[in-house]
Automatic annotation (TrEMBL):
<keyword id="KW-1003">Cell membrane</keyword>
<feature type="domain" description="ABC transporter">
    <location>
        <begin position="10"/>
        <end position="245"/>
    </location>
</feature>
<protein>
    <submittedName>
        <fullName>Monosaccharide-transporting ATPase</fullName>
    </submittedName>
</protein>
<feature type="domain" description="ABC transporter">
    <location>
        <begin position="257"/>
        <end position="499"/>
    </location>
</feature>
<dbReference type="InterPro" id="IPR003439">
    <property type="entry name" value="ABC_transporter-like_ATP-bd"/>
</dbReference>
<dbReference type="InterPro" id="IPR003593">
    <property type="entry name" value="AAA+_ATPase"/>
</dbReference>
<keyword id="KW-1278">Translocase</keyword>
<keyword id="KW-0547">Nucleotide-binding</keyword>
<keyword id="KW-0762">Sugar transport</keyword>
<dbReference type="InterPro" id="IPR017871">
    <property type="entry name" value="ABC_transporter-like_CS"/>
</dbReference>
<dbReference type="InterPro" id="IPR027417">
    <property type="entry name" value="P-loop_NTPase"/>
</dbReference>
<keyword id="KW-0813">Transport</keyword>
<keyword id="KW-0677">Repeat</keyword>
<dbReference type="GO" id="GO:0016887">
    <property type="term" value="F:ATP hydrolysis activity"/>
</dbReference>
<dbReference type="Pfam" id="PF00005">
    <property type="entry name" value="ABC_tran"/>
</dbReference>
<dbReference type="GO" id="GO:0005524">
    <property type="term" value="F:ATP binding"/>
</dbReference>
<dbReference type="InterPro" id="IPR050107">
    <property type="entry name" value="ABC_carbohydrate_import_ATPase"/>
</dbReference>
Length: 499
């Protein structure tokens, strides 16, 4: 066994992790080769996050052994893991909003010159790292000024500054477009050439097949398949993950659009977007596509009153409206399902029930008192409608899978009787089965007469789910297409048209 382990940098041998009433990992054995890219895939709740927490020392195993460079790891901890050059980059970002990019990258290991901070060196090194990850921002930029996708690239740059043997990437391309993803793949391949081992976790199966050397499939806390990536295809991967054949989304053939404008923007500008004009029809799913930084999210935030409009007009159901705040938007029956659901969309430490009703407590309140029975009834009904899986209404939403968390956000806004719903990256970080459920929900809402704006960096999602697509570039609308006339090549070309 020892000779065999010398071929690997990390080996998990018969690992089990139990919590009260739950077995998160059951008799898991996986070996990670030196200088290879090993992907972990599985639905939310399959055990991927638990496995990574064990490797990084955040939690301890119930039984089994972990070997690193041939030696058994005992009494592991996050600090010891970092000392061993096992560096994780988590899907949940760890940026300090008020600090600059270079301060975030060097936080905890600042460089000094004498007794003073060597800010010049740290800024120059940060510029070098940002160039490696393809991020064109100043090292002095405050983290709060960056979108989620750019923050993800800074997190990867932060990992690269350390001397790393094993780099763990948890959903690194969640907020990246295809072009930015290809750039990141180049970085990862270069790290592999340097002998660094990559553990790669992603719900995007096409990129897993393209990038990895080996793939391990987890389901219900167990390893169900491990083999070289060339021995898999996407359908085989999906079946291994979910334990059944899954029908994939095809172009939306069921048209629910009515020739009735529910929203119209005329020459709307903010500090981030310029001269935006378009309309949204009743029952329509309108896609907003473009590269990261193109203004997609900024446009959505302007519509919802989260970004100040400097010029232009917004009409709702034919009437001119002043949308100066999210409250104004909600009063006009709009909803915003944010890309950053864990920070902005949910209150993770509160219950499922509290998260669903806090935006619409008036519906279950009489004379200033919440009717608990009615509150429970309406929440159970909306959760059943969306097929949300939860243990009880009192369960913290933190404990739900990513897909079910997203459904809770949708449930919250549906209870407000919103008729215009803005979805910003609605399938970000959720598994393939949950994605199909979210797509089904979008189509059902459109069929019911709701109007939807779908902001997405996934080409397949944009082309298959929407009725019409606006392509953005450099804060402007570069082009508009009926979805059936759109191709990935066209999307790429138009996204870069105004750069």
């Amino acid at each position: 066994m020892e000779d065999q382990m010398n071929d690997y940098i990390l080996t998990l041998e018969n690992i089990t992790k139990e919590y009260p009433g739950v077995t998160a990992l059951n008799d898991v054995t996986i070996s990670f080769e030196k200088g290879k890219i090993h992907a972990l895939v599985g639905e939310n709740g399959a055990g991927k996050s638990t496995l990574i927490k064990l490797l990084t020392g955040a939690i301890d195993k119930t039984s089994g052994k972990i070997f690193y460079k041939g030696e058994e790891l005992k009494n592991n901890s996050p600090i010891k893991s970092l000392d061993r050059k096992i560096i994780p980059v988590y899907q949940e970002l760890n940026m300090i909003p008020t600090l600059s990019v270079y301060d975030n990258i060097f936080y905890g290991h600042e460089m000094t010159k004498g007794i003073a901070l060597d800010k010049k060196y740290m800024r120059e090194k940060t510029s070098e790292l940002l160039k490696q990850v393809g991020l064109k921002v100043s090292p002095k930029t405050k983290a709060r000024e960056l979108g989620v996708g750019n923050q993800q690239l800074v997190e990867i740059a932060k990992a690269l500054i350390k001397d790393v043997d094993v780099l763990i990437l948890d959903e690194p391309t969640t907020s990246l477009t295809d072009i930015e993803t290809e750039n990141l793949f180049g970085i990862i391949r270069n790290l592999k050439k340097r002998g660094i081992s990559i553990i790669y976790i992603s719900h995007r199966l096409d990129e897993v097949l393209q990038l990895s050397d080996t793939i391990t499939v987890l389901r219900d806390g167990e390893v169900v398949d491990t083999r070289p990536s060339y021995a898999f295809d996407e359908e085989h991967l999906i079946k291994s993950m979910v334990g059944r054949n899954l029908s994939r989304s095809t172009r939306n053939k069921e048209k629910t659009v009515k020739n009735e404008k529910v929203l119209e923007l005329r020459n709307v500008s903010t500090d981030q977007v310029k001269n935006i004009s378009f309309h949204l029809l009743k029952g329509e799913i309108l896609g907003i596509a473009g590269l990261m930084g193109s203004g997609r999210t900024e446009l959505a935030e302007a519509i919802f009153g989260r970004d100040k409009i400097t010029s232009g007009e917004i009409f709702v159901n034919g009437e001119l409206k002043k949308i100066n705040s999210p409250k104004d938007a909600v009063d006009e029956h709009m909803a915003f399902i944010t890309e950053d659901r864990k920070t902005l969309g949910l209150m993770l430490d509160l219950s499922v029930l509290e998260n669903v009703t806090y935006a619409s407590l008036k519906k279950v309140t009489t004379n200033g008192t919440i009717d608990k029975d009615e509150e429970k009834q309406v929440v159970e009904e909306i959760l059943e409608r969306l097929n949300v899986k939860y243990a009880s209404l009192d369960e913290k939403v933190l404990n739900l899978s990513g897909g079910n968390q997203q459904k809770v956000v949708i449930a919250k806004w549906l209870l407000t009787n919103a008729s215009i719903l803005i979805f910003d990256e609605p399938t970000q970080g959720i598994d393939v089965g949950s994605k199909e459920e979210i797509y089904g929900i979008l189509r059902k809402l459109a069929k019911e007469g709701k109007s939807i704006i779908l902001v997405s960096s996934e080409n397949e999602e944009i082309m298959n789910i929407t009725d019409r697509v606006l392509v953005m570039s450099n804060g402007e609308i570069a082009s508009e297409y009926k979805s059936e006339a759109l191709t990935a090549d066209t999307l790429f070309k138009d996204s870069a048209r105004l750069l």
